[in-house]
User: Which sequence fits this backbone?
C-alpha cells in the first residue's frame, strides 16, 4: 500500500523492451503495466483518434486468444484491468493476485504482436467509439474544452481530442488502424512496469519467456514540433441549450521536464488548488483557500472553480474551469478573474502560501503511494516525460523553488495577452449573461 | 472450485481489526499499516434524507454541505486554512439513511484533523452568508442536472420505481424545496438528529489502533447531545406489479441514458450474495458480462452497457444501464430484454459460475490494495452488521452456491412484464 523507499530496478531485453520492477510487499498482489510511446501527439491531420481506437482494438483478440477469452481470464483472477490513451502515451494494465502475474504477461506479450484487427470487429468498434464520443458531447464542458484546445495549439496535435473528431472516426479504415498498431506496438517502443509483491528473478524469467521472442523492429515516428507559446489572446464562444454558463481559461504550461514546471505546480496550487497525483485511489485536497476560490466562489461570483495542470512531453496548457452562477454574467466573472491574476502577478507572494503549497504537495505524494496500481502508474508515467527520478524527487524539487522563481514563471506564462478565454453561453440567455 | 493462492487469515478479521464501542454510542474501527505515512478514515451518522421534513426535500444534504462552512471555534477561512495547510481533507455528504464523511491526512496531523471533524459534526455555526452561497450553488447544480441525461434518467427511474416512498425523491431535493429551506431549518435538523449515538468511524493507514482509539475517545467523548433523535422509520415498500416507462426529453443531446430495473434484496444478505454472483454474470464480468457482450461487443450500440446491484439497508434496485445513440434506444431495450429473458429462463453455465466464484475469491487479496479501500471495507462490515471475519468466511459461502440458486434469485427479482424503464435524452 505504500512505503516510499522501494526504488524500481530498471533493465531491458535485447529487443529493446524496457523493464521497471518495483517491489512492494504490503499485499499479495501485483500491478502490471505496458506503456507504448504513442498517443494522439503522434497523429497526423485527418487521422485523429487512431491511437485511442487502436487501444480499443487491442481488446478484440489475437491469433491465439479471443478478446473475450483474455478479458475473462483476467477477470477470473479477481483482478481488474483497463487501458488508457493520452496525448503522449497508451498504457494497458492488470492489477491481480501475485500468483496470476503470468496470465497478465502472456496476454500483453501476445497482443503486442498478434492482434487481429478483424474487419467486422473494426466496424462494430467504430460505433462504440462514436458512442463514447457522443457521451462526452452531452457535456458542454467537453465541447468548450475541445474549442479551447484547438485555439491553444495551432498545429501541434495537443489541439485534438484523444477520441478523435467525428469526421475522422467515420473515415479511418482497418488498414489505418493496423498500420498504426504494427508501427508503434514494438518492444523497443514499450516499457513494462511491475509494482507489487513478486519475486524479481521469477518475474524476469516470465518476462523473458513471453517478450524476448518478439522481434525488434524500428518504429517510424511522427514527432510534432512543440508550440512553446500562445501567440496572442483569443476568445472562443460556444452557444448551446444548457442553462448554465461556463468559462475555461487556458495558458501555456512548460513541458514537465522543464525545471519551471515545478514553479508552475506551486502557482497552480496557490491559484486554484493542488492537482491530485492519484489516477487511482482516494481523492485529493480541497481548494477553498486558493486565491481563485476565495475571490470567485466565496465572494459569490461563480459556483465553482478548479484548475488542471498535467505533466506532458511537450509544452501543454494550464486550464481554469469556472462554472458561473446565474446572477453574474461570464463577462463579470472574467473581469473579477482578471483582477485576481493581476494581483497575483504584481504583489509579493506570502511565505504562508508557499509553505502551504509545499505541505500539500508532500501530502499528495503520500496519498499517491497508498495504492499499488497508482505506484505502478507513476513508474511508467514519469518515464514517459522525464524519468522516475522526477516522481521520487517531486517534493524536493518543489522545495527548491524560490518565491522569485514563482513570480518569474507566473509573469512569463500567465500573460493576459497570451491566453485563450473560452465561454459557453446559453443561447436563449436563460442565465444572466 | 480452484484453490486460493493465499491464506484467508491474511485478510482483515476479528483478530486484526480493532473495534471498540464507546459509552456515548459511537463505534471505532481501525486496521493499521505501519508503512503508511498517511491515515484514511470514513464514517457515518445514521441520519439522511429520509428525515427530510415534508416540503423540505434536500435538507439533510444541505445540512451536510453546511457542516464545513464554519464551527464555533473556526470560521470558514480558518477552518479550511487549517485543513489545507496540512494537505488534509474532510468531505461530508448525505445519503438516504446516513450522513457520510471521509478524510485523509498525514499521520502527524491526525489529532488536529480529528478535532476539526468533531467540531464540524458537533458544533457547526451555519453562517448566514455561507447559507446563501450554498443555496445559490445548489440552484446551479439543479440547472446542470436538468441537462444531464444520466441524472435525469436516474431521477425518472426512482420516481417510477419508488412512487410514494421517500426514496422517490433525489437526496439533493428540488429547486422548489431547497429554495424554501431557511437557516433555522438547518439548526433544527442538526439539533434534532446529530449526536454521537450511532456514529461509526473506521481508520486505516499509518496510525496505531489503540492510540487512535484513545485520541478519538478524548475528542469525541465531549460530544453530548441529549436531544438527539433517532432517524424516522423507513416506510415499508412493496415492489410494483406493472411495467412502467418514462422518457425525459432533453433536446440536442448526442447520447441517451437508459435504465431498466427491478427490485433487489437487502444489501449483504445471503440472498444478496447470490444475486451479486448472478449480477456479475449478467452485466459485469469481463467486458460487462452478457449485457456488454450483447449490446456493446456484438451490436456496437453503446460505449457502456452493464448491470448494477444496489447495496443498501432499505429497499434497493437491480438495474441494467446503457448510454446509446437516441436512434438506437429501442434496439438497445430489445437486446437487454433478450438477455434478461435468458437470465430468468436458463441456469447460468458451469463455466460462468466458476468464473465469477473464482473472481470473488481473487478479489479478496485485491481488497488489501489501499488503505482508503480498507477503511471503506471496515465501514461496510459495521454498517451491514457483518462478522469481522466476513472476508475469511466468504470462500465457504461461495463454494456452496449453485446455478439453480442463481436462477431462483433471478426469477425472484426480474419480472419481464413489470420492468421499470426510464431514459433521458433527445427525442428518438
Assistant:
Amino acid at each position: 500500500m505504500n512505503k516510499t523507499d522501494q526504488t524500481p530496478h530498471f533493465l531491458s531485453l535485447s529487443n529493446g523492451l524496457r523493464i521497471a520492477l518495483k517491489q512492494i510487499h504490503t499485499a499479495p498482489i501485483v500491478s502490471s503495466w505496458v506503456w507504448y510511446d504513442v498517443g494522439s501527439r503522434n497523429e497526423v491531420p485527418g487521422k485523429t483518434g487512431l491511437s485511442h481506437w487502436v487501444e480499443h482494438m487491442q481488446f478484440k483478440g489475437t491469433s491465439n486468444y479471443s478478446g473475450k477469452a483474455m478479458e475473462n481470464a483476467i477477470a477470473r483472477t479477481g483482478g481488474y484491468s483497463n487501458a488508457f490513451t493520452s496525448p503522449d502515451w497508451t498504457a494497458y494494465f492488470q492489477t491481480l493476485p501475485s500468483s496470476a502475474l503470468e496470465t497478465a504477461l502472456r496476454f500483453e506479450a501476445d497482443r503486442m504482436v498478434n492482434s487481429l484487427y478483424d474487419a467486422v470487429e473494426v466496424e462494430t468498434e467504430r460505433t462504440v467509439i462514436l458512442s463514447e464520443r457522443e457521451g462526452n458531447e452531452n457535456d458542454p464542458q467537453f465541447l468548450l474544452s475541445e474549442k479551447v484546445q484547438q485555439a491553444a495549439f495551432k498545429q501541434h496535435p495537443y489541439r485534438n481530442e484523444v477520441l478523435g473528431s467525428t469526421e475522422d472516426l467515420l473515415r479511418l479504415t482497418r488498414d489505418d488502424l493496423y498500420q498504426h498498431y504494427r508501427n508503434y506496438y514494438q518492444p523497443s517502443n514499450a516499457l513494462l512496469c511491475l509494482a507489487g509483491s513478486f519475486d524479481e528473478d521469477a518475474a524476469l524469467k516470465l518476462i523473458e519467456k513471453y517478450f524476448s521472442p518478439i522481434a525488434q523492429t524500428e518504429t517510424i515516428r511522427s514527432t510534432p514540433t512543440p508550440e512553446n507559446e500562445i501567440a496572442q489572446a483569443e476568445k472562443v464562444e460556444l452557444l448551446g441549450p444548457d442553462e448554465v454558463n461556463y468559462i475555461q481559461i487556458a495558458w501555456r504550461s512548460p513541458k514537465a521536464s522543464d525545471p519551471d514546471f515545478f514553479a508552475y505546480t506551486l502557482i497552480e496550487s496557490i491559484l486554484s488548488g493542488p492537482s491530485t497525483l492519484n489516477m487511482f485511489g482516494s481523492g485529493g485536497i480541497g481548494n477553498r483557500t486558493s486565491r481563485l476560490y476565495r475571490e470567485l466562489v466565496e465572494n459569490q461570483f461563480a459556483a465553482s472553480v478548479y484548475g488542471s495542470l498535467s505533466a506532458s512531453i511537450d509544452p501543454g496548457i494550464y486550464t481554469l474551469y469556472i462554472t458561473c452562477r446565474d446572477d453574474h454574467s461570464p463577462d463579470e466573472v472574467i473581469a473579477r478573474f482578471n483582477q485576481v491574476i493581476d494581483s497575483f502577478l504584481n504583489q509579493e507572494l506570502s511565505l504562508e502560501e508557499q509553505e502551504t503549497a509545499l505541505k500539500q504537495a508532500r501530502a499528495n505524494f503520500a496519498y499517491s503511494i497508498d495504492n499499488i496500481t497508482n505506484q505502478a502508474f507513476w513508474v511508467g508515467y514519469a518515464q514517459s516525460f522525464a524519468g522516475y527520478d522526477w516522481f521520487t524527487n517531486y517534493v524536493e524539487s518543489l522545495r527548491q523553488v524560490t518565491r522569485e522563481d514563482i513570480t518569474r514563471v507566473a509573469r512569463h506564462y500567465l500573460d493576459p495577452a497570451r491566453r485563450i478565454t473560452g465561454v459557453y453561453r446559453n443561447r436563449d440567455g436563460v442565465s444572466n449573461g | 472450485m480452484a484453490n486460493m493462492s493465499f491464506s484467508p487469515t491474511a485478510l482483515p478479521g476479528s483478530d486484526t481489526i480493532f473495534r471498540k464501542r464507546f459509552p456515548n454510542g459511537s463505534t471505532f474501527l481501525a486496521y493499521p499499516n505501519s508503512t503508511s505515512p498517511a491515515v484514511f478514515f470514513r464514517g457515518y451518522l445514521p441520519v439522511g434524507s429520509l428525515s427530510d421534513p415534508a416540503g423540505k426535500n434536500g435538507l439533510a444534504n444541505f445540512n451536510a454541505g453546511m457542516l464545513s462552512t464554519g464551527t464555533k471555534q473556526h470560521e470558514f477561512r480558518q477552518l479550511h486554512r487549517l485543513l489545507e495547510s496540512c494537505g488534509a481533507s474532510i468531505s461530508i455528504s448525505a445519503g438516504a439513511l446516513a450522513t457520510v464523511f471521509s478524510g485523509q491526512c498525514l499521520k502527524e496531523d491526525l489529532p488536529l484533523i480529528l478535532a476539526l471533524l468533531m467540531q464540524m459534526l458537533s458544533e457547526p455555526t451555519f453562517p448566514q452568508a455561507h447559507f446563501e452561497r450554498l443555496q445559490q450553488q445548489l440552484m446551479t447544480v439543479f440547472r446542470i442536472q436538468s441537462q444531464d441525461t444520466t441524472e435525469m434518467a436516474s431521477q425518472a427511474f426512482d420516481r417510477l420505481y419508488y412512487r410514494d416512498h421517500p426514496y422517490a425523491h433525489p437526496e439533493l431535493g428540488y429547486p422548489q424545496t431547497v429554495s424554501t429551506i431557511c437557516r433555522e431549518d438547518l439548526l433544527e435538523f442538526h439539533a434534532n438528529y446529530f449526536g454521537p449515538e450511532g456514529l461509526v468511524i473506521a481508520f486505516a493507514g499509518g496510525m496505531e489502533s489503540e492510540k487512535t482509539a484513545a485520541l478519538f475517545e478524548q475528542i469525541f467523548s465531549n460530544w453530548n447531545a441529549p436531544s438527539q433523535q433517532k432517524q424516522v422509520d423507513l416506510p415499508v415498500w412493496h415492489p410494483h406489479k406493472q411495467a412502467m416507462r418514462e422518457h425525459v426529453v432533453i433536446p440536442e443531446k448526442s447520447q441517451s441514458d437508459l435504465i431498466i430495473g427491478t427490485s433487489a434484496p437487502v444489501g449483504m444478505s445471503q440472498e444478496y450474495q447470490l444475486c451479486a454472483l448472478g449480477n456479475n454474470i449478467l452485466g459485469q464480468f469481463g467486458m460487462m458480462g452478457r449485457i456488454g457482450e450483447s449490446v456493446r461487443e456484438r451490436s456496437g450500440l453503446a460505449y457502456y452497457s452493464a448491470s448494477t446491484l444496489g447495496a443498501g439497508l432499505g429497499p434497493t434496485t437491480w438495474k441494467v444501464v446503457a448510454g446509446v445513440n437516441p436512434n438506437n434506444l429501442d434496439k438497445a431495450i430489445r437486446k437487454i430484454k433478450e438477455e434478461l429473458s435468458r437470465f430468468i429462463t436458463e441456469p447460468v453455465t458451469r463455466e460462468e459460475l466458476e468464473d465469477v466464484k473464482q473472481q470473488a475469491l481473487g478479489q479478496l487479496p485485491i481488497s488489501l490494495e489501499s488503505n482508503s479501500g480498507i477503511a471503506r471495507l471496515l465501514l461496510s462490515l459495521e454498517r451491514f452488521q457483518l462478522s469481522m471475519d466476513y472476508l475469511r468466511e466468504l470462500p465457504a459461502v461461495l463454494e456452496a452456491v449453485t446455478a439453480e440458486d442463481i436462477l431462483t434469485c433471478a426469477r425472484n427479482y426480474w419480472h419481464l412484464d413489470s420492468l421499470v424503464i426510464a431514459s433521458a435524452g433527445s427525442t428518438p
Notes: Chain A touches chain B through 85 residues (CB under 8 Å).
